[in-house]
């Protein structure tokens, strides 16, 4: 079987993505049927950057499938500290594991690894570039809770410049008819030019860029909030100036439609007040649960263990 990597949402066709989301839903409904699918398989988690959800949900996913996990959660515990390259590391890991999830602060590092790998490499977040498994989580959440992926007005709010979850989700959603975006951010944190031009404009996707959250809220089907990420700023003063640009609270939620979803890749800092957590429209903790099913489906798909998969 040819090795398939998952570095960007566009590595799966629309049909493959649809099949993966259907598999994830089936896993949710029939978990016992999948409990031994990955018996004797190993996942390596190579995390050169901190993570709670992504790493642990990958570990939970592989264990739920009957497999085991090796890896590191901190590059300082690995031979990266001695100067070992990502290319050499993945050659080593290919001898130990059947599949690998890699998070790295440098954009493109998982792609470099994939070029030298004998096992599927999954991008678990590369710098400010992409976070495609968060996107699988987001797509599954939207499909389950909205009932569709088409004809949606999606608000994205916060750090749209460095927000890799935002970049990946925009990339994934443009294939669905009737999707439009309201991009809500300070001027300094607007989406990068390549997203505006190569992804949105070149595909004729309707979008507007605004700075006011309250004005945008009434027209949204879903609001995707993001954190202003301290770790992506070179200048602490700039971060402090930007960090509380948007705070969604119970009062602002009164402006939103009754069926608008509030999503967030998490972790949150101040951008969603805890008084929103009990609002039935706030689905960011459900989103975390869907992340496990999405990653189980991805592991199965890349390992060729989904009998109905079109991948070969
Ligand atoms: N959503 C997400 O990537 O969270 P972690 O950084 O905790 O993995």
Could you describe the 3D structure shown?
The protein is of the alpha/beta class. The protein has two domains: 9-129 and 291-311, 3-Layer(aba) Sandwich (Rossmann fold), CATH 3.40.50.1370; 132-288, 3-Layer(aba) Sandwich (Rossmann fold), CATH 3.40.50. It is 36% helix and 14% strand. The protein contains eleven helices and nine strands. The protein has helices at 14-29, 53-64, 86-93, 109-116, 132-146, 164-173, 193-201, 213-216, 236-242, 250-253, 284-302, and strands spanning 42-47, 68-72, 99-104, 121-126, 153-157, 180-184, 207-210, 222-225, 261-263. It has a five-stranded parallel sheet with strand order 7-6-5-8-9, with helices on one face. Strands 2-1-3-4 form a four-stranded parallel sheet, with helices on both faces. Strand 3, helix 4 (109-116) and strand 4 form a beta-alpha-beta unit. The chain is globular, with a radius of gyration of 19 Å. The N and C termini lie close together (6 Å). The model has no long low-confidence stretch (mean pLDDT 95). The protein binds phosphoric acid mono(formamide)ester. Residues 51-54, 125, 134, 265-267 line the site of phosphoric acid mono(formamide)ester (CP).
CATH class of the largest domain, named: Alpha Beta
Helical amount among residues, as a percent range? Answer: 25-40%
Q: In percent terms, what proportion of residues is strand?
A: 5-15%
Strand line-up of the largest beta sheet: 7-6-5-8-9
Number of strands: 9
* Overall spatial form: globular
**Order of helices and strands, N to C?**
HEHEHEHEHEHEHEHEHHEH
What count of domains describes the coordinates?
2
CATH architecture of the largest domain: 3-Layer(aba) Sandwich
CATH superfamily (homologous) name of the largest domain = Aspartate/ornithine carbamoyltransferase
Determine the number of helices (DSSP H or I, runs of at least 4 residues).
Answer: 11
- Low-confidence stretches are none
Biggest sheet overview = 5 strands, parallel
The name of the CATH topology of the largest domain is Rossmann fold
Structural class: alpha/beta
Bound molecules: phosphoric acid mono(formamide)ester
Query: What's the N-to-C terminus distance?
Result: 6 Å
How big is the Rg?
Answer: 19 Å
Quote the average pLDDT: 95
